[in-house]
Specification:
Radius of gyration: 23 Å
Distance between the termini: 51 Å
Order of helices and strands: HHHHH
Number of helices: 5
Helix content: 55-70%
Structural class: mainly alpha
Oligomer: single chain
Length: 148
């Protein structure tokens, strides 16, 4: 009988293999995964998800009943190819790790611009929202450009 939480025994090995795989890939590809910025990184994740979704739309064997085509566990059991659905799952998980690590690195970086009050103004005294609404939007846009 299978244990309900036996997968927990594999978490450390999965994570360790992901880190090893990412470090090895970095030697060959560098940081190409983020070459086109955050939108490009998102689209890369979306493509990996699309591959998984498209594989699951197909029924690999008669073992998957008509209503169960989205059973990812059954797809994994049926797909014996080396670069099958498990490869897509690994790729997606590793890219998600890279995205999170990039974000953590960003959070660690000091912010160089001056402090801006929650009004969006560097000098909020005398701020008049009826007059300075456009200036508020411009300041926020400039801050976003600097940070990203």
């Amino acid at each position: 009988m299978m244990r309900d939480n036996g997968y927990l025994d594999w978490l450390e090995e999965v994570a360790t293999n992901d880190v090893k795989g990412l470090l090895e890939a970095e030697k060959h590809y560098g940081n190409s995964w983020k070459k086109r910025g955050g939108v490009g990184a998102f689209m890369m994740l979306a493509r990996k998800w699309d591959r998984l979704e498209n594989k699951c739309k197909e029924r690999p064997t008669d073992r998957i009943a008509k209503g169960d085509k989205w059973d990812i566990f059954e797809h994994l059991r049926c797909d014996e190819r080396k670069e099958g659905i498990i490869d897509d799952i690994r790729d997606l998980r590793r890219y998600l790790l890279l995205v999170e690590a990039e974000h953590l690195d960003y959070l660690r970086q000091p912010v160089e611009e001056e402090h801006i009050d929650n009004t969006g103004q560097e000098h909020p005294h005398g701020f008049d929202p009826d007059v300075d609404v456009e200036a508020d939007v411009d300041v926020e846009a400039d801050v976003l450009k600097k940070r990203y």
